[in-house]
Amino acid sequence: MADTPRPYHHGRLREAMVEATVALIEEVGPERVTVREAARRAGVSPGAPFRHFAGKTALMTAVAEEAMARFRTEVLASLAQVPADDPIAGLKAIGGGLVRWAVRNPTHFKVLSDRALIDFDGSAVLPAINREMQAIHADLLARAIAGGLIRAGDPKTLALAGRALVYGLARMYVDGQLAQWDVAPDEAEARITAAIDDYVEGLRVR
């Protein structure tokens, strides 16, 4: 049964709580998550998690930290598949990596996206990975501009526009809006990736 407490191995309390919280969010939504209910589903005593999580925000932040780690892994894996000296391919890879992460981790995406649920700035993980990803993106844009591959422009503005596009497309997928644009579920990832590629190609110097 979905609400049967699961035993956890000693030393895995954080992981067990995060897993239980993700399952709970998928079942009842983030608003109804409580630390105690997550503890029950993780198979631990009601008071045990409070040594690690001061409250619901801390628990949700832990979910967001796992989400960000998964995002980083997906993006770096995507970048590893394209030539390091091709910034255009790198820009497409970053967008594709974010899309694949969101498609495969929709609940994590929703939690990380909702700043009202988490303490983003208070986390030791979230700002650090965010800065790392932004730095990679900025470097790719700078190299593409310096190499005359894309039109000159303010790198920060270009980065913001690219991020907004990719985030918006991922959000549309996670929120179930793509069907309204005649995008079938089994072609969503490919269509989103194609849209990102078209955007990057549109930046090229003609």
Short description:
The chain has helices spanning 13-28, 35-42, 56-80, 87-104, 106-113, 126-146, 155-174, 188-202. With 206 residues, it is mainly alpha-helical.
Q: Please identify, by name, the CATH architecture of the largest domain.
A: Orthogonal Bundle
Q: pLDDT below 50 for ≥5 consecutive residues: which ranges?
A: 1-10
Assign an overall shape.
elongated
The count of helical stretches stands at 8
What is the fold's blueprint, element by element?
Elements (H helix, E strand, L loop, with lengths): L12 H16 L6 H8 L13 H25 L6 H18 L1 H8 L12 H21 L8 H20 L13 H15 L4
Helix pairs in contact: 1-2, 1-3, 3-4, 3-5, 3-6, 4-5, 4-6, 4-7, 4-8, 6-7, 7-8
Descriptive notes:
- The structure is a single chain.
- By secondary structure, this protein is mainly α.
- The chain folds into 2 domains: 1-53, Arc Repressor Mutant, subunit A, CATH 1.10.10; 55-202, Orthogonal Bundle (Tetracycline Repressor, domain 2), CATH 1.10.357.
- Helices cover 64% and strands 0% of the residues.
- It has 8 helices and no strands.
- The chain is elongated, with a radius of gyration of 19 Å.
Supply database-style keywords.
8 helices; mainly alpha; 0% strand; Arc Repressor Mutant, subunit A; Tetracycline Repressor, domain 2
